[in-house]
Amino acid sequence: MQPKVSIIGAGPAGFALAADLQRHGKRVLVYSHPTHLRHANGVREKGHLQANGVMECSTTLPVTSDMGEAVAFSRILILTVPSTGQETVLQELKKFALHRHTIVAVPGNLFSLVAAAELDAECILETNLSPYSCRMEEGGLLTVMGRKKRIFIAPLSHSQQQQRGQNQIQKSPNLGGAAAVTTVVYDKMRSLFPMELRWCSSVVEVCLCNVNGVFHPLMMLMNAGRIESQSTATTTSSTTGSGDNFLLYRDGLTRSVANAMLAVDRVRMRIGEAFGLRLPSAVQISNECYGQAFADFVDLARNSPPHNRLRAPSTLENRNLSEDVPDLLVTWCCLAEKLGIDASPIRAVIVLVGMATGVDYFAIGRNLQRLHLDDVSADELVARFSPGGAHGMMVDCGIPPEEGGKYMAVL
């Protein structure tokens, strides 16, 4: 019998994952929210999804706007909506009994901490990034510029799911049972995803490895004038094509932009150190995900095929800011300041983007209150999310060292 998977989110990432899973022998159902049907309708009208780039295929994918149908179709729900849309999906999922369902947020951005207080799911996992660099055009045409060779993943620990927003930290009462569940989840995920998985010690480690927060906001902010000027040029110079948007990475990630990124990246890695983690640099994480070996930000921007062909958006109203600032940078900044780490480079980016867009990202973003961590002390925070800490017990679950080490946090 073919394994079945429900993909919650009918955007480029959702359709790319659905097509890839179907190519690898899975039965899939794609859910599109009734208020976000543009891409789903394009695929329906065309009769199939056409993918090109590094993933060439033409495939027929079933699409539904009924969450009940998606929940009934499979006990594995993969959320591919932007984190700005996750809470809309959460309101839909709350209507169903999910105690036998596994939910995977791709990427997570600590969705599990937001959702654990409201969902009775068997397990919630998060990845650091989407497996695909892709764009979707009208008429069901999907262009995949890059397909990652590896993504980072972790589950929310069983003890934290039991808290449901409370601050009392509980250990799993049955270490042996937890180890068994860990192995089951590991095997399920390994058989599901068509790329390698690096298992992390916690969802916080996974969040810190979403390097979009290092790349995207500063490229947008430091090229804001060019983005808006070229957008105007595009509308006034449609005949020559001279108004086409510049290449965001290749043209927009210069040495000065890279220097600012390094400052943000250092704070991200210091947060990791506070949790007992030796996080790779943002470039190293990108290299690992794509199987590359670039020396620095500028080298990657100029020479990485998944990156150097991406055109800049035509406006600052783009998920590079609307998602990565409130749901990554705000989280990192709040964690750093709670732990006594100088977060001024990250705070500066958040404040400047807020000044440019008129949005109070600290108010709307995933701050500690939204993550149910506002009343947790710094010591408790470290204990909860550190590998091998008092409440982050580790068990041997047979994971090969090359796939994230011998140990994994208890579920």
Keywords:
411 residues; alpha/beta; eight-stranded mixed β-sheet
- Structure classification: alpha/beta
Oligomer designation: single chain
> How many strands, which pairing sense, and closed or not: the largest β-sheet?
8 strands, mixed
Number of DSSP helices? 19
* pLDDT < 50 runs, ≥5 residues: 164-181, 235-243, 390-411
Question: How would the blueprint of this fold be written?
Answer:
Layout: E1 4-8, H1 12-23, E2 27-31, H2 38-46, E3 49-53, E4 57-59, E5 63-64, H3 67-73, E6 76-79, H4 83-93, E7 102-105, H5 111-115, E8 123-127, E9 132-137, E10 141-147, E11 150-155, H6 158-163, H7 175-192, E12 196-199, H8 203-208, H9 212-222, H10 224-236, H11 248-252, H12 255-274, H13 282-290, H14 297-303, H15 319-322, H16 324-338, H17 344-357, H18 361-364, H19 378-385, E13 394-396, E14 407-409
Parallel strand pairs: 1-2, 1-6, 2-5, 3-10, 6-7, 7-8, 11-12
Antiparallel strand pairs: 3-4, 8-11, 9-10, 13-14
Helix pairs in contact: 9-12, 9-16, 16-17
Domain Glycerol-3-phosphate dehydrogenase NAD-dependent N-terminal: 4-105
Protein name: 6-phosphogluconate dehydrogenase
Domain Opine dehydrogenase: 199-356
